[in-house]
Specification:
Blueprint (H helix, E strand, L loop, with lengths): L2 H10 L2 H7 L7 E2 L10 E5 L28 H4 L5 H17 L2 E5 L22 H16 L4 E7 L12 E3 L2 H19 L3 E4 L3 E2 L2 E2 L4 H11 L5 E4 L7 H7 L10 H12 L5 H19 L10 H15 L1 E5 L11 E4 L24 H4 L5 E3 L11 H13 L2 E7 L18 H11 L5 E6 L14 E4 L7 H9 L33 E2 L8 H6 L17 E11 L2 E10 L5 E11 L10 E10 L4 E8 L6 E3 L4 E3 L3 E10 L2 E6 L2 E2 L15 H6 L4 H14 L9 H6 L2 H9 L6 H4 L4 H16 L1
Parallel strand pairs: 2-3, 3-4, 4-6, 5-7, 5-16, 6-9, 11-12, 11-13, 13-14, 14-15
Antiparallel strand pairs: 1-2, 7-8, 10-15, 17-18, 18-21, 19-20, 19-24, 22-23, 24-25, 24-26
């Protein structure tokens, strides 16, 4: 559809039709203009399955949707660290959407995991914006390869369920840019989603739906977004203000009162018709892009897609610990304990809940001879002494006990946040009781976010399936018995306890909002800076084989740095290793995290095989967001390039020197410190000359100071006092007059401005 044709359609539309097009037709359809050949098109919840409902359906899934395939949730797929895998999953979802006449899939959800208590963490990817951005871009590319749109959500800073429709996420500009917007920026620039869904919450007091800075200045003008912005269901506060800010589509519909409000706003001059026309143009572009796309015949093969879901989960599960008891041997006497073995928790509750075609359990997929005892139910925290005693006896009689633990649906869901980070008490107690009679214990976890694991030091093996989709049963047994080799890596840090989390003192806030007082220090950025012990670090994950890194080298090309490292499979099994590239700022710039993830590469290696991982860095990879510049900035100096297995397992490094292309603004005044001026290459030579001149003029007397004076005023004390003193103190340190100080300030500022 060319531009001329779109504007011809707009020219034929009435004002009322234009307003209506910017609201939903019903709960799941966008409005059309049928007299002009513009049909209504359908959107559907995702992002890990097709939750297609009719127009009478509800947002939270009380009414049934069509039978569909539930893929692993975002909490699991992010642990794959595998862009190709996410693109494959997206392509499968895109074909399903085409087959079911769905024009836009609502996802992926890429908000940061600020606190492990957020009820919707299971949908989100990571605590790290780089990883979340890469996973999101890959999924979007896959879905949109079928000319089906995606609506990346929830834009932005939607990190809790408590008062999510009115609360304000309050933070400084650097925190917003570096942590809470970066994943969206990457998704928009790298994958060009057709739509962006605004969040419910306010950001620094302004509703996301009315935030022109966010929806227009940043999203469109800075990042180049060319799709439409839609509201989350019921997120619009004031319709005219929202459209003016850059929100085109209000959902759900119909919204006759708000449509009439838009019409009146144009008629009374509060809103220009040109502004409304621009919104209509953006809507039409996407509607017609879907309707007129030429794509292959789409088939929704539920059985084939179930197998794809199972295969994907094999790549996502994280082997958190293994003291050598995994993989299990077929024919070994094994006891499966816990309700999740027969009824796994494989997805979260709320708007993403899929009406699954079928769900496999580890028990039904287990080898013949595996003994099963429920011990505790999968859906609640309930103690049954008789059931537990049967489970303990089964564990004692077995060679290995596998306990299937996790969080029931009621513990984490959209709509509310978790109140603690513990497993149900009945599960922790069962694990304790089993360990008294059996040392060969494996714990398999089904959860959407980290849990406290007080038994972790005693249990030999822990396998985390997260929420692994409807094929979780096949995947679990394949991993337990070595038919597949675990290769997932944690997309979030698992702390020892809830109180260790950096947001603990500021979560969830109150009715006025929540302070993001921890700033950029969320997840591993905080734990690594504090040198704090954690249960399992970001990026961690074990394998049934081992890998060695060697021969790190760098090359520069086209303003970018290529980083290469050789990786060898030194074990006896085929396996996959995820090379993680972190950057550490060694320039002395204050307020930087110890290291930040800036590259990932997953390699598949046969035993003894060596491959080269190639990654790339650019200026942005080294940068932080400066509130002085209102832009990204990297200081000149050295940066350590770390090739790692996790954020705390570095296996190779290099230290190149970078020369910045821009200078930090500096306003020199009477209270500018000597240290700040000596640290800036523009002013350091001038001030150093003044210091040297003062030293010669203020040389000490021939008689050395007394012993007491030397102890009181050390050389280091004098140096630090000078370094931290403002220029106005030059009268005392350098013997300068006020006029001389003013002249020095003028000279220094000229050097800065030159």
């Amino acid at each position: 559809m060319n531009e001329k044709r779109i504007w011809e359609i707009i020219g034929k539309m009435t004002l009322e039709e234009k307003a209506a097009l910017c609201s939903g037709k019903d709960f799941w359809h966008m409005e059309g203009v049928e007299r002009l050949g513009i049909p209504p098109v359908m959107v559907s919840d995702g992002p890990h399955g097709l939750r297609k409902q009719d127009d009478k359906a509800d947002h939270l899934g009380v009414n049934e949707s069509i039978k569909a395939v539930c893929f692993p949730a975002g909490c699991a797929t992010a642990c794959s660290f595998d862009e190709d895998l996410l693109e494959r999953m997206g392509s499968t979802l895109g074909q399903e959407c085409r087959a079911e006449n769905v024009s836009v899939l609502l996802g992926p959800a890429i908000n940061m995991k600020r606190s492990p208590l957020c009820g919707r963490n299971f949908e989100y990817y990571s605590e790290d914006p780089y990883l979340a951005g890469k996973m999101a871009a890959a999924l979007i590319r896959g879905v949109q390869s079928w000319q089906v749109g995606t609506s990346v959500k929830h834009f932005a800073a939607n990190n809790q369920e408590y008062r999510r429709m009115s609360g304000s996420s309050n933070m400084d500009e650097r925190t917003l840019r570096e942590i809470y917007l970066t994943a969206f920026e990457m998704a928009v620039k790298e994958a060009k989603p057709w739509a962006v869904m605004c969040s419910y919450n306010r950001i620094n007091g302004t509703f996301a739906s009315e935030n022109r800075k966010l929806l227009t200045e940043i999203l469109r003008e800075e990042w180049g977004f060319d799709g439409f912005v839609m509201s989350d269901w019921g997120a619009v506060n004031r319709r005219v203000d929202a459209l003016h800010a850059g929100l085109e589509l209000q959902m759900p519909g119909p919204c006759p009162e708000d449509d009439a409000e838009l019409v009146r706003a144009v008629q009374n001059g509060e809103l220009s018709e040109d502004e409304l026309d621009r919104a209509v143009e953006r809507m039409l572009r996407i509607i017609l892009r879907y309707e007129q796309a030429e794509v292959p015949q789409a088939v929704f093969d539920r059985e084939a897609d179930h197998q794809i879901a199972a295969d994907i989960e094999k790549e996502c599960a994280v082997l958190l610990k293994n003291d050598g008891i995994l993989p299990l041997r077929r024919g070994e006497k094994v006891a499966y304990l816990g309700g999740f073995a027969a009824k796994p928790r494989y997805q979260g509750g709320g708007s993403s809940h899929i009406n699954s075609t079928r769900v496999s359990s580890a028990l039904e997929c287990a080898p013949e001879g595996v003994v099963y005892e429920e011990a505790f139910p999968a859906d609640r925290d309930e103690w049954n002494e008789e059931a537990v005693e049967r489970a303990v006896r089964a564990a004692k009689d077995a060679e290995t006990a596998v306990i299937f633990a996790g969080l029931p649906d009621s513990f984490e869901s959209e709509g509310y946040d978790r109140s603690h980070m513990r497993l149900p008490d009945c599960q922790n107690e069962l694990i304790r009781r089993v360990l008294e009679v059996q040392k060969r214990v494996v714990v398999v976890l089904h959860c959407g976010s980290p849990v406290e694991t007080p038994w972790a030091d005693e249990v030999p093996a822990v396998l985390c399936m997260y929420l692994g989709g409807e094929g979780v049963g096949e995947a679990t047994d394949a991993l337990l018995y070595g038919d597949a080799n675990p290769c997932g890596r944690l997309a979030e840090t698992w702390p020892l306890r809830l109180e260790d989390n950096p947001s603990y003192l500021n979560f969830p806030g109150d009715e006025d909002g929540v302070s993001y007082a921890e700033g950029v220090y969320i997840g591993y950025r905080y734990y690594d800076k504090k040198k704090m012990e954690v249960r399992w670090p970001f990026g961690h994950g074990e394998s049934y084989t081992t890998f060695a890194y060697s021969n790190v080298r760098l090359s520069s090309e086209g303003g970018k740095v290529r980083v290469l490292v050789d990786v060898t499979n030194t074990g006896a099994r085929e396996g996959k290793e995820t090379v993680q590239l972190y950057v550490e700022d060694c320039t002395g710039t204050p307020g930087r995290p110890v290291r930040e993830l800036k590259g990932i590469k997953k390699l598949s290696l046969l035993p003894g095989e060596k491959k080269t991982a190639e990654l790339e860095l650019d200026d942005r990879s080294l940068s932080w967001y400066s509130e002085k510049l209102h832009d990204w900035y990297a200081a000149s100096g050295s940066y350590r390039i770390l090739l790692a297995h996790s954020s705390r397992d570095v296996r190779g490094e290099a230290t190149p020197t970078y020369f910045s292309k821009q200078r930090m603004p500096l306003h020199v005044h009477h209270n500018t410190t000597v240290g700040a001026l000596l640290a800036d290459p523009r002013t350091a030579p001038i001030l150093q000359e003044v210091i040297e001149k003062a030293k010669s003029m203020l040389a000490p007397a021939e008689d050395a100071p007394g012993e007491a004076a030397a102890e009181a005023i050390t050389e280091e004390m004098s140096r630090q006092m000078l370094f931290n003193s403002p220029l106005r103190a030059a009268q005392m340190f350098f013997g300068m007059s006020k006029a001389e100080i003013d002249a020095l300030i003028e000279k220094l500022q000229k050097a800065v401005d030159a």
